[in-house]
Amino acid sequence: MGEFELLALLRERLPAAGPRVRLGSGDDAAITIPGGATATSVDALVEGVHFRRETASLREIGRKALATALSDLAAMGATAGEAYVVLGAPEEAGEPELLEIGAGLAAVAAETGTTIAGGDLVRAPALTLAITVVGHAPRPEDFVTRAGAHPGDLLVVTGALGGAAAGLLLLEDVKLAGALGAVAPGTGSLDPATADALRRRQLDPTPRLAAGAALAAAGATAMIDLSDGLAGDAGHVAAASAALLVIEAETVPIAPGVAAVAVATRRDPLKLAVAAGEDYELLAAIPPEGLGAARKALAAIDTPLTEIGRVEVAEDARGRAEIRRRDGEAVPSRGFDQLRRPRRPR
Amino acid sequence: MGEFELLALLRERLPAAGPRVRLGSGDDAAITIPGGATATSVDALVEGVHFRRETASLREIGRKALATALSDLAAMGATAGEAYVVLGAPEEAGEPELLEIGAGLAAVAAETGTTIAGGDLVRAPALTLAITVVGHAPRPEDFVTRAGAHPGDLLVVTGALGGAAAGLLLLEDVKLAGALGAVAPGTGSLDPATADALRRRQLDPTPRLAAGAALAAAGATAMIDLSDGLAGDAGHVAAASAALLVIEAETVPIAPGVAAVAVATRRDPLKLAVAAGEDYELLAAIPPEGLGAARKALAAIDTPLTEIGRVEVAEDARGRAEIRRRDGEAVPSRGFDQLRRPRRPR
């Protein structure tokens, strides 16, 4: 089967195009009618760097690639629109394998109302997915950037953190889950359902599109999705906003089971929650008067929202984020850096 | 140097953002005000598959990646707008190497009025560039797809063909250029300037943006850029338009020097021109009454335009393209297929 036949098969399996798409995949370019303003982001996953075939199915890889790309649109408060997918396939990947990845992409597209409007299929030495996503809003000022956090704003985070990192530890060490009860009896049990939920946080993150839109509508002044870890991503907001972000360590919501995995692997649960990435929750700054509306809107979509700190005046224009324990001690932590990533694939 | 510092360095070297871009690279997403309608296309180049470091400089690789992506916008008659770049970098690629690629991207962006509005930098086993480009037009119907070719339309092609394929042969066999005079004295000499021009056609293609816009304005009914080769790409237009495209072999413009390279390598020059790809010229269908305006507009931008055939009624809805010699013989040829690409990298 050649490129064109396979592309046709992949196209057949996609959900129907959204109303903005006048011409989808198959011509030199897709044609859309974007409306007022667009937010565009691009993300890539590479086998051996961002995932391993031993721990993730092809369908999960397809799902995660699109979900993590869409997470950036969630962080803008955008409505998901279109996605354009480059699939780099090794020679040994046959038609069934590529259709599995396509099925994962198509499922997340259907779940989020995204149209996969174009793509390119190329040979590559390692399975590679590079995805551009386009989101919409009536006006450019409706999007929430990282740059608007203002002294006096509160910091809120959706969901709970550390789950993706704990899930990765469980995936990479299959004996860990079984040993947990014996190794760390004092930290609470890790029942199979909780362990599975942690693994799913790593393999199948959910882009917080509805929560992002709700936080934008409630007046969020700055927002980011937690891909690099709370510490690093708060640092990005601080730098873009030239503000000091102070996060109270004890208020950071930690996902169920993270403590058990942390203790069993001799790690600090808080560090797993703030220094490891890939939770794809949202961190937002919001003026105190917007908090009530934000809480109400997020409760309506069953998404937890936790107040974890505040925005203060920075010492200098570079801005800074700090995670403090109640005793005043700072939590040493750093964000995730693609080029400093250790060799061990995740 | 880490990801964020390097991205900042790359950003510094980009040309200024265009008027549609409200927020460029550096946040979760870029923000643009697209206007009426957008054409979006995505393309990828992979080391060892689409280029080799032995025959292409990093700057040329950066240039070609953006130029070939923009070629798809030229084929829509779009005005180039924004580009979003995924750069997959092997561990051994250092800061100077990545900045060289960035310089190539920035140069083509400046030459074409494209804003590089976002990107992602990841580790990858082979140097990879995946680029999404967005072009603009007032209305969706201003774009020219592959699907509108109508019986009675004339077929025109910009520039001359076969140059990229002949250039590749010269690049892959460095002794070929020197041997040409002796091997094929009857085919005209291949002077160093012509040989160099052929190599440049392979390494540094020009997206025909102005020509594409002019052909669209002159009433082109269907258009495609010649990436897979005239035979294959005419087949795509025929299929999308459900029409028969008849191309007269003797009228196909062949680039200077192609004949010499073809004979020296025991190839048919016409086959080099129609079956090999990467010339990135435009093939358009245009009603006879539009031809005068198209000729005039292309003469004004010094772009050759040649009439090479006509659109006829197809035998069935699948459409078909045929390249005929004057004696009626069809030229056997096939387009380029990514997945059937031979192992030897280009």
Written overview of the protein:
The structure is a homodimer of 346-residue chains. The first copy, chain A, is of the alpha+beta class. Chain A has eleven helices and twelve strands. Chain A has a six-stranded mixed sheet. In chain A, strands 3-6-4-5 form a four-stranded mixed sheet, with helices on one face. In chain A, helix 3 links the parallel strand 4 (79-89) and strand 5. Chain A is globular, with a radius of gyration of 20 Å. The two termini of chain A are 31 Å apart. Mean pLDDT of chain A is 91; it is low at 338-346. Chains A and B meet through helix 1, strand 2, strand 3, strand 4 and strand 5 of A and helix 1, strand 2, strand 3, strand 4 and strand 5 of B. Strand 2 (30-32) of chain A pairs antiparallel with strand 3 (37-46) of chain B.
Give descriptors for this structure:
homodimer; 346 residues; alpha+beta; four-stranded mixed sheet; 35% helix; disordered C terminus
Overall pLDDT metric of chain A: 91
Residue fraction in strands of chain A: 15-25%
**What is the number of helices of chain A?**
11
Strand order of the largest sheet of chain A: 8-10-7-11-9-12
User: What fraction, in percent, of the residue positions of chain A are helical?
Assistant: 25-40%
